[in-house]
Design goal:
alpha/beta, 5-stranded antiparallel sheet, about 45% helix, about 5% strand
Length: about 1500
């Protein structure tokens, strides 16, 4: 920069007014001169008022000639030896006081000539001060300390004048700067020796130099010769550690000012200490700051020269020392050069810190830079230590940071050169898959990029600062001593390239140099690490036989700082995979790793795990891609798919030895991805091979490998020259090409082999070492659940049985742990294990055909429900149920065991049912059954209130509700004693029709009678018919004589004869009787003629009609034992009766019955999918993206199809994402046909959603879109009004009041059930008359609502940087489901976000955000993971489900679905129970429901 300018740094002999002082010394002898100087200095100092009390005496010096005599004497005194310390002190005191003439308020003791021309005399004084700083040779520490005190006083005085003087001239500024340069050269240019004044004053003189230089830049900018002098001087001082410290300090201060006005106040600021806050003058302009920053940055030349001791020692001072020393033969062998590795490391840390500052890494400071260990940047340490889960820690780089090319233009030459120290640039003989242990340059024709000559092969003892005894020895430096600084440079380069934004282009020349540097950094192992590794391996093999891994400093720095290298669209980065894989094999599969100092081993393993997860999908994705490793000239090519067995082995071996919980969970996520990817790849491979010729463009496997080589089209120099470069959007043939066939044909690499290995590994570790860590246990159980759902052609039933057996053993062990160890976390693992067992049994129903497996399952269910097994050992006598104490581990464990039992009895082997996967319950209800009843005239307007009146309702065992219909259904042509039962229990609703038959159904078809028997033949001997008139009194009654009593009642005739009127009435009555008798006789004869007269041609023999009147409800209850005398007596007296009759006529019964039906028996969750185009932050713009297919990524709709299947919300009986349309089947409104050109908006929830379910869970995926211009009519279904309470708001009140979804789906308020008992988890309900039993609560007493306040966002990003500005809170209004609590907006929303970013190579980068809770790290997706297209939808769905399950496990108020249904039934018993005695109950059974 200043090479064309002469330097103003004159030789030291010509500085300091040498002529005048020499004349003074030559004029008088030493003793005379000493006495004269001592007297003069003492006299002048006594008048200053410093040694005696009182004000200073006014100076009597009034002429310039007087000063011309005195000042050479004082200057001569400053050159006295340190033994004359008093004279030196007086001279310094006089000159310091006289320099106050330059201040606004000069001292009174300053002579008048100096006051009249302060700049002239100040320059003379400053020149004389030089002699004070000249080293006096070897002195004792006490003497040097006295000199240092005087020097510090002079420096303080000069610094004060520079800061506060208003009258400094340009010449004075230049004199001051030259003085500072000369004293620094005098002190710092010589090699460092013990007890040297330069070593003690180094930091102080350098700080004054740079701070004064900055002041001069603001007030009187130094000319180029001075800048050249500063540059040349600094290059002679580079063997001093203080120079690099001050260089870093000034660079940081200037960079902080530069960044503040370049990028604005929002850019992260550099943190400064209190001493450095005002180091930059406030009056310095922006242009001046930029100029000074650039010049100071290059003031020491190339910092990489610090790694070359031969260059550093090429100074006159080192040459002079070598000539005069008897030990040092070469200048480069001076002992002080032993400090160069530490100095080089400090310089590289400073450059690395400047890189971080321009990248926008927060909390950058010089103190943190000096405190942190080698090659561990603040950004990398924060990202790795936070496990990538925190929202704040995830955003490590500023959004407005500089581009990579700009930073590389500025710092790239230094960093690349430092990264390639001691690297043999000759191509290696073959691919380097293993770490090169030599670490030294080869003997090829090309020289290493280093300045060490033949010393590179010497063994070093330490890679950092040498110990104190080594300072006396000759410098014996080798390149391995500088690995720390080289690692720092590699780490800075990795951070620069990892800061690449989406769509940003990096120059190919930079990529090439970077790949070469990374390759060399990965393949070399420093001798220090090798020596430690050999020692550690010897010790471990001697005692344990284990193996210790090794990782060099450079490789560790690349791993820690380059975790994102394979997650970005870097062209040709795949060529680094072989080199990276060799380093990973030395870190991950070893139980002990010899990591560099200051770098925690778990942090190194975490970084290695991140890198491994990034390269796992590459072999199956880049099918047939042949890679030529960087630096390989042998012509050997590597097919990337051949690395897959090595990657899988590395993953499984890492899981066996990993002890860190976070690392283990990450490895588990990668393992599940490997198995799923391999399984789907094999299935699709067989499909693609079958119809490759016709359907290549449509099969999933071909689409899964698209865009495989598009990122390498411009970077073929690092790949095989003969590799075919395909255009963007094409693929390397079908994924089932020859590369895949050769890979998957091996049995050890097939999906089945991975499946078996994963089961064995995870189950073994789960029981042996993971059982005490809740997060790792949950991650392992989630992996096993994912494996259970895999569809693998060659599944081994024995392995599946073994997995279920291990799960049961895990549950038994966790339940058997001591009571002091039982906690919420422990029970969460047991609950998750029960759920995992359910998944396995539903997916593999054949396991229950095995007697041993069935017995194991039932034993662990018994253990979960009762707390103990009835038969601990096979030799023990089993204990009966009534002999055991009901003492489960917790209510949560008991509930989960009950759920597994229900799954075994009702779902295993039958899911999905005839109703489909959308519903586990029967879709029949009272209204539907009555419409099919043949004895009931049902109108179309039948309401639920009217329908329930036809049923009898009973509750059995306080948990099963029976709705009995005694009318036969219309499809029964052969009436039998029939009852139709709707059975509502904790696990759903089922419908059964039962008939009382005396014979089996197949035998009942034969009729025991004929429908038309025909006319019988007449019989001639019908016998004699005797007409006998019966007698009512004996014949002797007429002969009995009458007595007076008989005659006391007059006869009728006597009465009639007396009264004429009575006689007339009697005649009329006789006429009526005669007419009636004649009529009845006529009718009787007609009837006898039609019926009794036989044979008759008009009369046929007809069978009597069958009986249709049966009290079937009574028969059913009686056959089940509910109507025995003991049972009825118990139902009257017991607090918890076995059978309770409900009064369906009470108000509100039908409504509560509907609430029970809509209380789902599976967990329900909702995921909301958003599409964010590059740079979008406005919620309305984000919602508009999915309106048209042209606005979304080509793979977005395919991804949506992988989440679930499309269902119509009006005809779907399951969960739809909103309570207003969930669990109901209604008539869809007549809307316009759906637009086939949509970009996902059709799944907004208005008409369709994406749905997925299994036997245990339901999940709906909604793609919110803008509201239509004509909003859809609200679903008009009477049974969809009260869903809000059904899904359990957190406070029991109507959720979402006052808030609406954008698609006109409202969250309804419910004003019923304010006293709902669902707020308490009651295992038994009290029905006695005593208040004590009625108010008793059991189990959890917290609010047991299934909180719906957490949200799951799935966000597709076109630009990865938009994940930091995604408006998650602003989009909450679009995600209302009706399950929210009334105050969910008032508190901080719990939002889980899964970001998906499509890379140009066809893979997808995942970012997880919002998992801040204790049970946070839900898998299988891991933050930063890269996955393939074929498994993207499946993994995202599983992760979303696991996030919700983790949230439920963590919640204290959560109740399982079957518990909520059970409590709903118990609540209805309390409200609608018949209070009847035993006779009243019997009478009720014999009474029709409608009576």
């Amino acid at each position: 920069m200043f090479s064309d300018w002469p330097s103003e740094l004159v030789p030291q002999q010509g500085w300091g007014d040498e002529a005048a002082i020499s004349a003074f010394k030559d004029a008088v002898p030493w003793n005379v001169g000493r006495d004269f100087v001592a007297g003069t200095a003492k006299h002048l100092a006594s008048s200053l008022g410093l040694t005696k009390p009182g004000p200073p005496i006014r100076s009597k010096i009034i002429h310039d000639k007087q000063l011309q005599v005195l000042m050479p004497a004082l200057g001569y005194g400053l050159s006295f030896p340190l033994s004359e310390i008093d004279i030196l002190r007086d001279c310094v005191s006089v000159y310091c006081e006289w320099l106050s003439a330059l201040l606004p308020n000069p001292k009174s003791s300053v002579p008048a000539p100096i006051l009249s021309d302060p700049n002239h005399y100040a320059r003379i004084i400053i020149n004389h001060f030089y002699y004070l700083f000249v080293p006096r040779g070897a002195q004792g520490p006490d003497v040097i300390n006295r000199q240092a005190v005087l020097c510090h006083r002079v420096l303080r005085t000069l610094q004060n004048i520079a800061q506060n003087s208003p009258c400094l001239s340009e010449d004075t500024w230049q004199t001051l700067l030259l003085f500072l340069l000369h004293i620094n050269s005098a002190l710092l240019s010589p090699p460092t020796v013990k007890e040297d004044a330069g070593e003690q004053l180094c930091e102080r003189v350098l700080s004054v130099l740079f701070e004064t230089w900055l002041l001069a830049c603001a007030r009187c900018f130094p000319p180029p010769p001075l800048w050249n002098a500063l540059r040349e001087s600094c290059q002679r001082w580079r063997h001093r550690a203080g120079l690099i410290d001050q260089w870093n300090r000034i660079n940081f201060a200037l960079t902080g000012k530069l960044i503040s006005f370049m990028y604005g106040p929002s850019f992260p600021e550099i943190k400064f200490s209190e001493d450095d806050l005002n180091i930059i003058p406030s009056t310095m302009s922006r242009d001046c700051i930029a100029q000074v920053w650039y010049r100071i940055l290059h003031i020491i030349g190339n910092p990489v020269d610090l790694s070359r001791h031969t260059v550093i020692s090429k100074t006159p001072a080192f040459l002079k020392y070598a000539i005069s020393s008897e030990l040092v033969i070469e200048p480069s062998q001076h002992p002080c050069l032993q400090m160069l590795p530490a100095i080089f490391l400090s310089a590289m840390k400073g450059v690395s810190g400047l890189v971080d500052a321009f990248l926008g890494v927060p909390n950058i400071s010089l103190e943190n830079l000096n405190q942190k260990g080698h090659h561990l940047s603040s950004s990398s340490s924060l990202s790795l230590s936070s496990e990538g889960r925190g929202e704040d820690s995830a955003r490590l780089l500023a959004s407005g940071r500089a581009k990579c090319n700009s930073i590389l233009h500025l710092f790239g030459p230094w960093l690349f050169e430092a990264a390639l120290i001691n690297c043999n640039m000759q191509a290696s003989l073959g691919p380097q898959h293993k770490t090169d242990g030599s670490g030294s340059a080869g003997s090829g024709s090309r020289r290493p990029v280093s300045g060490f000559g033949g010393e590179s092969g010497r063994k070093s003892s330490d890679s950092s600062v040498p110990s104190e005894p080594q300072n006396d020895r000759l410098a014996n430096l080798s390149p391995q001593h500088f690995q720390g600084g080289r690692a720092e440079a590699l780490g800075a380069l990795c951070r620069i390239f990892c800061s690449k934004k989406t769509g940003e282009e990096i120059l190919p020349v930079y990529l090439a140099r970077f790949y070469l540097a990374v390759h060399q950094g990965l393949r070399q192992t420093d001798s220090n690490a090798t020596a430690h590794q050999e020692q550690a391996s010897f010790t471990s093999n001697k005692y344990q036989g284990s193996k210790t891994g090794v990782c060099s400093e450079t490789a560790a720095s690349i791993l820690v700082n380059g975790v994102d290298l394979f997650r970005l669209d870097l062209q040709g980065v795949v060529s680094l995979v072989p080199s990276v894989l060799g380093v990973l094999e030395g870190v991950l599969p070893e139980a002990e790793v010899n990591a560099p100092p200051h770098l925690p081993v778990p942090l190194l393993r975490r970084a290695a795990t991140h890198v491994l997860l990034s390269i796992l999908p590459l072999p199956l994705h880049f099918q047939g891609l042949q890679v030529k490793e960087v630096g390989c000239s042998s012509g050997e090519r590597l097919v990337l798919s051949h690395l897959r067995p090595q990657l899988v082995n590395l993953l499984s071996n890492a899981l066996q030895v990993e002890t860190d919980p976070a690392n283990t969970q990450m490895l588990l996520g990668g393992l599940l991805f490997c198995v799923q990817d391999a399984a789907l790849c094999e299935v699709m491979d067989s499909i693609s091979q079958h119809n490759f010729s016709s359907d290549r463009d449509h099969n999933i496997m071909s689409s899964g490998a698209s865009d495989t080589v598009s990122s390498h089209g411009d970077y073929n120099s690092l790949l095989d020259d003969s590799c075919e470069t395909l255009p963007v959007g094409d693929s390397l043939g079908p994924v089932g090409s020859s590369g895949l066939s050769s890979t998957t044909s091996a049995s050890h690499d097939s999906a089945h082999a991975l499946f078996v290995r994963a089961i064995y590994l995870v189950c073994h570790r789960l029981i042996s070492s993971w059982k005490s860590d809740v997060n790792v246990s949950l991650a392992g159980l989630e992996l096993l659940s994912g494996l259970a759902r895999l569809s693998i052609a060659e599944q081994d039933g024995l392995e599946c049985k073994r997995a279920v057996k291990w799960l049961c053993d895990y549950i038994a062990y966790q339940c058997s742990r001591p009571a002091r160890l039982h906690s919420k976390d422990l029970h969460s693992t047991i609950v998750a294990a029960f759920h995992c067992a359910s998944v396995w049994l539903v997916a593999h129903p054949y396991l229950l055909q095995d007697k041993e497996c069935l017995g194991t399952i039932l034993e662990v269910i018994e253990l979960g429900i009762s707390g103990s097994k009835s038969q601990v050992k096979s030799s023990d006598a089993p204990r009966l149920k009534h002999e055991k104490e009901l003492k489960p581990a917790s209510m949560r464990v008991r509930d989960s065991a009950e759920a597994l039992l229900s799954c075994v009895l009702s779902q295993v082997g039958t899911f999905p049912s005839v109703c489909g996967a959308e519903s586990l319950s029967s879709l029949l209800d009272e209204l539907t059954l009555l419409r099919h009843c043949n004895t009931c005239d049902v109108s179309d307007q039948l309401t639920r209130d009217a329908a329930v009146q036809h049923f009898r309702y009973f509750v059995a065992q306080n948990s099963i509700m029976l709705a009995l219909l005694e009318q036969p259904l219309g499809n029964h042509q052969d009436p039998q004693p029939t009852v139709t039962a709707l059975i509502r229990g904790p696990f759903g609703r089922v419908a059964w029709t039962m008939q009382l038959r005396h014979l089996a159904r197949h035998k009942s078809s034969a009729k025991l009678y004929t429908v038309n028997p025909g006319r019988p033949l007449p019989m001639n001997d019908v016998g004699i018919k005797h007409n006998v008139k019966p007698k009512y009194f004996p014949d002797s009654v007429e002969r009995i004589p009458l007595c007076k009593a008989d005659k006391s009642i007059p006869s009728l005739e006597s009465v009639i004869m007396v009264d004429e009127k009575s006689a007339i009435e009697h005649d009329k009555l006789l006429q009526i009787l005669d007419h009636q008798i004649a009529f009845e006789d006529n009718i009787r004869r007609q009837v006898e003629r039609e019926i009794t007269d036989y044979p008759d041609v008009e009369t046929e023999c007809v069978a009597p009609p069958l009986c249709h009147e049966f009290q079937t409800a009574r028969l059913l209850l009686s056959h089940f034992g509910f109507l025995s005398l003991d049972a009825l007596q118990e139902s009257v007296e017991s607090a918890v009766p076995s059978l309770v009759a409900l009064d369906s006529s009470m108000a509100g019964f039908a409504k509560d019955l509907e609430l029970l039906d809509t209380t789902n028996n599976r967990t329900v969750d909702t995921g909301h999918v958003f599409y964010v185009r590059a740079g979008q932050t406005n919620p309305h713009d984000i919602l508009n993206n999915v309106v048209s297919v042209s606005s979304v990524h080509p793979h977005f709709l395919e991804f949506l199809g992988g989440l679930g299947w499309s269902v119509n919300v009006h005809q779907h009986p399951g969960w739809t994402g909103h309570v207003s349309t969930a669990f109901t089947v209604t008539t869809p409104p007549q809307d316009a046909p759906l637009d086939s050109n949509h970009g996902g908006s059709v799944f907004s929830g208005r008409t369709h959603v994406l749905y997925w379910s299994d036997a245990l869970s339901e999940m709906a995926f909604v793609v919110p879109s803008p509201a239509l211009s004509q909003p859809n009519s609200q679903p008009a279904a009477s049974n969809s009004v009260n869903m809000g309470l059904v899904l359990e708001r957190c406070d029991g009140s109507g959720g979402g009041s006052g808030s609406e979804r954008s698609d006109s789906l409202h969250s309804y308020d419910v004003e019923v059930d304010q006293g709902s008992s669902l707020s308490s988890h009651t295992s038994q309900m009290s029905f006695g008359h005593g208040n004590e039993n009625r108010n008793r609560k059991f189990g959890r007493q917290t609010s047991a609502m299934s909180c719906g306040d957490h949200k799951v966002y799935i966000v597709w990003l076109e630009s990865f940087e938009d994940s930091y500005t995604f408006p998650a809170i602003d989009l909450l209004n679009e995600t209302i489901t009706g399950r929210e609590s009334s105050s969910w907006k008032d508190k901080e929303a719990c939002i889980y976000i899964i970001f998906i970013h499509a890379l140009t190579n066809g893979l997808f980068r995942i970012k997880l955000q919002g998992q801040n809770a204790k049970l946070s790290m839900a898998g299988p997706l891991i933050d930063g993971q890269v996955v393939s297209r074929r498994v993207l939808g499946t993994l995202v769905r599983q992760t979303a489900l696991n996030m919700c399950r983790r949230k439920r496990l963590e919640s204290d108020s959560y109740q399982p679905p079957h518990v909520r249904r059970k409590l709903r039934i118990q609540e209805m018993v309390q409200k609608y129970r018949y209070e009847m005695t035993e006779p009243e109950f019997y009478s009720h059974l014999f009474t029709s429901p409608l009576c």
